[in-house]
Amino acid sequence: MDEQTARGVVVGLACGDALGRPVEGWSADRIRRRHGTVDAMLGDGAHGLPAGAVTDDTEMARCLARSLTERDGWDPDDAADRFVAWFRDDPTGIGGMTYRVLSRVAAGEDWERAARDVWERSPEGRNAGNGSLMRCAPVGIAFADDPPRLVDVSMASSRLTHWDPRCTHACAALNLAIAAAAAGDPPVETARDHLLEHTTDPPDTVLGALSDAADADRDPGTLPVSGYVVDTLEAGLGHALAADSFREAVVSAVNNGGDADTVGAVAGAVAGARFGVDEIPAAWLDALEGSETLSRLAVGLTAVDG
Ligand SMILES: [Mg+2]
């Protein structure tokens, strides 16, 4: 993946997170009444942070990007260590399953055992959130040229906290779509083909989300907004693929409300792969917390060996 595109993916993810953060959990109606359209970095709102501040989506993606670049490849123990260090340092907006797993790993338990056990004990409805999907894009850059490896590491990166097959396959699907978009290939069709070729039993829900996201006649305002991983995969891809610009993709995702920062982050990563960092509005880049570091990490990800 070229550097301009890789920077688009990582910085795009962070822009979606930061634009959506003040209205996280709001309905589309409440956003419209309060702000009209959110198309600038706002302060306060949910989490009460300054304009351009990011949350768990970007912070966990940064952990993965640092691990992949500093270890020059996939090292799950190192990635888990970085998640735990982040967890101990006042994590912003941490999700339920991530909290339940990392609190056990921080107390000394092996991550694999903790993650699997938390998943097995979680009832349907609380077992397949979007917490691994929102952060997985750095893997899609590092292994963009090697689809089987991209699939394996995307799924492994999910299992650090999210063991459910819908989560692991959604991460693989998203990163395949990001790599395809960056290469100028059709994102959804390419992702579906590789998912069928390189995984066993991809869940029908994940394949269905891919088809629904690619429906060109769909009004993006009808895309789902929940924190369920299948919904976020469909919505993130749907907003990013329907838009004619990076800006349109992220504004469309965020103003739909619901899990606005995370749908914004997923849409931003895919739109960043389509349009590149040069198409991200300058005012957003200026306001974004830590954009230089994210840019540098993105360039480092393009040079990861294995
Ligand atoms: Mg968040």
Q: List the uncertain runs.
A: none
Look at the structure and give the mean pLDDT. Answer: 97
Number of strands: 0
Helix-strand pattern: HHHHHHHHHHHHHHHH
What share of the residues does DSSP label as strand, in percent? under 5%
* Gap from first CA to last CA: 14 Å
Radius of gyration, in angstroms, nearest whole number: 17 Å
CATH homologous superfamily annotation: ADP-ribosylation/Crystallin J1
Coarse shape: globular
Taken together, the total number of domains comes to 1
Name given to the CATH architecture: Orthogonal Bundle
Helix proportion: 55-70%
Under CATH, the topology is which? ADP-ribosylglycohydrolase fold
| SS element count, helices | 16
Outline of the structure:
The protein is mainly alpha-helical and 306 residues long. It is built from 16 helices and no strands.
Report on the structure:
Helices cover 63% and strands 0% of the residues. Helix 1 packs across helix 16, helix 9 packs parallel to helix 12 and helix 12 packs antiparallel against helix 13. The chain is built from 16 helices and no strands. With 306 residues, it is mainly alpha-helical. The chain has one domain: ADP-ribosylation/Crystallin J1 (ADP-ribosylglycohydrolase fold). The radius of gyration is 17 Å and the shape is globular. This is ADP-ribosylglycohydrolase family protein. Keywords: Magnesium, Metal-binding.
